[in-house]
Amino acid sequence: MSRERDTPAALVVMAQLREGREQALLDELAALPSGEESPFRRVASTHFCRWLLIPALLGADGEAAEPGRAYLLLTADFDGPLADWVAAMTREMGPHLDRIFEHCDGYRGSGELGALTDFIAERRVSVGFSILSSRATVARVRSSLELRRALREFAIDSQGMTPDALRRAWSERFGA
Amino acid sequence: MQRQQRAQAVTIISPVHRLWALWLRATWPLADRLAPVKRPLLRLSFIHFAHWSLIERVPAGVAGARRLAHPYVLFQSNFDDELSAYIDAFSLVVPGRMRAMWQGVFGFPGPRPVDRFLSFILARTTPAQYYYCAYPEASSTMVEAALRLSEEHRRFAAEAAGLEDDAFAARYAEFLTRNQLLL
After folding, report:
1. Tell me, which fold does domain B7-126 have in CATH?
2. Distance from CA of A56 to the nearest CA of B (A)
3. Which of A64, A98, A155, B54 has the most crowded Cβ, counting Cβ within 10 A?
4. pLDDT level of residue B2 (50, 70, 90 thresholds)
């Protein structure tokens, strides 16, 4: 497995909304399933993702700044590379992407991967400085959390066992 | 800011003096590679992922796109605990780094006193309408502990494979003692 594939990557996309689409976009985001039902659950390399509406950029004194438009911000942390993540998003949640991004200028649908990749590339904001608590993949984080839970349970359940019973229980639980 | 179990999202977008944008653009490439710059932030141990960006044009990736009147600093973080505790820690533990990031943002009051800094942050926070976390039950500390424990478990399993029952039990007790803070 390549280092790039193992390493989390960040994506920031800021797309200008079409005029008057703010409420329709908010409705669409509110309707997107969350938690265990989130379509991002199927894009298995996703660590974190958020969508938010920026009603307007504000100037130095808090006034609405030119060009006075609203923006959709998509940011995500995922196990790289970007092309694989975008392809997985298209495959697993293409209709959701279409219903959200159709409110943005220049969106041509997720049906053509090249067009979606171009749309993202043209609106991608570079990340300048990052803090990452770990570089583990989503799969490794999840399996490690599950193992930690199992070891904690085993430590409690195995209290007072004789050595042979402990060994047998360990082998049954952890296979070694 | 939106809460989904342990991890939360915060997003802040603020206009910044153009000279400060130049400073950030010049210093970030090196700072992003220097572990000593990041270590105090990582030691806070409630950040999963945090990113700082500069936005100077929209659309950002198109040559000749419209230049904004001011550059904007975009800060986003996935973190545990409450936002006020997060900002408290930034203010108290790494005030110098906060200045190095935010000093050129319009209206930045400095990292101390923390109440003013927190008000500044809250006034510039944009709520997330949608937030997803792949492991919402886990804090950043839990993830780090689990990853370290996973390595310890792999080593223990390899070492213990050929041991007799009594030796296995003794070795297991050592494993538990050594890693009890990770469980």
Report:
1. Alpha-Beta Plaits (3.30.70)
2. 11
3. B54
4. very low
